[in-house]
Each structure stands twice: as structure tokens, then as C-alpha cells.
Amino acid sequence: MSFFPKISFHREVEEYLTKVFRNNELITSLGAKETESKYQSLLSHLSHPPAFTTVRVNTHLSSVKHVKKMLLEEIQKQFKGICVPVLEHPELQDILLIPAIGPRQDLKKHESEVIVGAQCGYAVLRGAHVYVPGIISTSKFMKAGDLVSVYSDIEGKCKRGAKEFEGVKVFLGNGISELSRSEIFSSHGPVNGMGIRMIEPVYLSPSFDNVLPSHLFLQNLPSVVVSHVLNPQPGERILDMCAAPGGKTTHLATLMHDQGEVIAMDKIANKVKRIKQNAELLQLNCIKAFCYDGTKALSVEKREDEQEGPPFLPESFDRILLDAPCSGMGQRPTMSYSSTLKELMSYQPLQRKLLFCVTCKGTSYRRRRHEGSWTGT
């Protein structure tokens, strides 16, 4: 039985997904009962965190063995006697895996409650503490130092500053308040910093806030696999078309031993800034980031200027990585998916535009050197 309720959707989205999943081919292969069982299991798993937290080692600065040792020491400090292993991935040599312990069902709930937003709640389930911007409501007389139980408002119906909430809420664990209610909801403007320090989370995962920031990059496993499949080589010129926040970009540069050039693009300026910050933090110098629309990244017309940024001419790159914008429905944990069917279907035309730009409009990669070496995700 699931600890959390299965993920919920808009009715039209659920009807669409149900129809797609219960297709004739799958039913013929597995039978109607097994097909339905797998579908319900999928919905349940989406609302729970992954079994492992995945971190990528910045092998540009240090070895996996050395970082593993430092990480073990950090986790021992956080968990205070609870033994949690750090495992090396059997196939990907720059990946460390930390098992998530939970769900812990024997935690005592406290009278004083804190309600957080859904996104904050998902972060808590992955090991984060609660920061003030994520807090929506607290009990009336909560003071700094109080033991509190933290809940997630997964439907987004709790009003900011409410003194109690009777709507749908999911228990995330217990913590200690760092601030009083009056300090959190101060009229002097938003308060930053930690609001609740989690001491008994439902899922025990390490917090990576300021933990070895130059040596580790918190990154989901599929995102790591992509860069290994692309297999960039030192000295090559690589394009990452939709690069923010820079996880794959910095991974590509690391695999290339910071030799060559990685061009990263995103059409939102703040996200491009984040790419540059991550490159600087990981001490990677071969990355150049540009604020530009990926659908317009390539041009067949020769440019007269010597500008190094987009748009680019045909055969400008050895390899291209395209991680096109998507619905994000597979992110875990997610207990409530708020997009409408119209929003869900809007990604397909954009993905086709980006793919057309790579494969047809000017053939941007150097076909003769690396036939078929672009990768799409």
C-alpha cells in the first residue's frame, strides 16, 4: 500500500493518459488486469521519491574515491549515528548513489503544524530543510525552538498566513522552528533563510545545501546518462541547445576534461546566468553561455560579422545535445500535476521545431566527422 496518495491530474489529463496507457497492444500483450495494475503502480510511484539520491562527481577537480570519502563524512554528521551507505554506480564511473530511507511510519505528529507549498514539500522529501519562502501557514502561537509537524498543501488551497488548515495535506515529518510565526509573516517584507530545520523527515535523505558545492552536482540519473551517450571528446565543439540550469552542460565540459568548447543556450536570461554560475562554481572554463531561442539557433546565411554567438552556420558543431522542454510529468515526487491538457500538448510543436532546427535546417553538426552523433532527449 502506498504511503502517499497517487498523483492526481486534471480530469481531462487523466482521461487522456488512461486512454494512451490502456492501448490495445499493451492489453493484448499483458492482459487487461495486468495493464491496469502497472498503470496504477506508475501513478503511485510518481508521488514518492526515488529509491536513491543521485549525485555527479566533478571529476575535473577530484577523484570519485576522494569525494565519496568526504561525502560519507558529511552524511555521518547529518544523520548522527544512522548508517547510510554511499554507493558507486556500477556502470557510470562519475556517479554516487545514496539510498533514501523511508517512508518512516512510526513518527509522532506534534500539535503545532506548519503548512508548506507543494514544491517546497517535494524538496523536503528529497532531503531539504524548509526555507521561509516555502512556508504558507503555521499554528497560531508557534515560537522559535518549537517542535512542529510539517505538511504539504498539495492542492494549493491554503491561504498564506492562515492559523489553521483543514484541507488536503500530506505529512512530511517533524522539525524545529528557527523563527516565530510573527517573524515568518512579518509586515516588513519577505524573510529569507531557514524556517524549519527537519530532524525527523518521513524520507531520510541527506541535505546537499552547501555540501561540497564545487565537487558534487545533484542531478537525476537519466540526465547523467544522456551526456555519457553523447560521448563528447576533448577538443570538440559541442552545442547544448536548451541548457539551463547547466547540469548537462557542465557534465559535457567535465567529460571533455575542459578541453574544447561547449556552447550553452537558453532563451531566459536568468537561466543563462545560472549556467554561468554553475560553470564558475565547478571551475570549468570551456563553457560559453548565450541567451538565445534554440528554434532560431541555426542560419544558412553567411554572416559578415565575427560574432561568436548564435545563430550558427551549418556544420558548426561536432555534436549536439537537445534536451527539449517537456511536461516534467516524470519528476519525482509529484503528488498533484496542475497542467491542463492544452498545456501538456503544447510541448510537442516546440519539440518538433527544435528537432527540425537540428536535423534539417542547415545540418548544424559536422556530418562527415561524426555521422549521427547528435543526441536528443
TrEMBL record:
Residues 141-377 form the SAM-dependent MTase RsmB/NOP-type domain. GO terms for molecular function: RNA binding; RNA methyltransferase activity. Keywords: Methyltransferase, RNA-binding, S-adenosyl-L-methionine, Transferase. It holds the Pfam family Methyltr_RsmB-F. One of its GO terms (biological process) is RNA methylation. S-adenosyl-L-methionine binds at C242, A243, A244, P245, G246, G247, K248, D266, D293, D323. It comes from the Eukaryota. PANTHER family: NOP2 YEAST -RELATED NOL1/NOP2/FMU SUN DOMAIN-CONTAINING, TRNA (CYTOSINE(72)-C(5))-METHYLTRANSFERASE NSUN6. Belongs to the class I-like SAM-binding methyltransferase superfamily. RsmB/NOP family. This is NOP2/Sun RNA methyltransferase 6. The lineage of its organism: Eukaryota, Metazoa, Chordata, Craniata, Vertebrata. The gene is NSUN6.
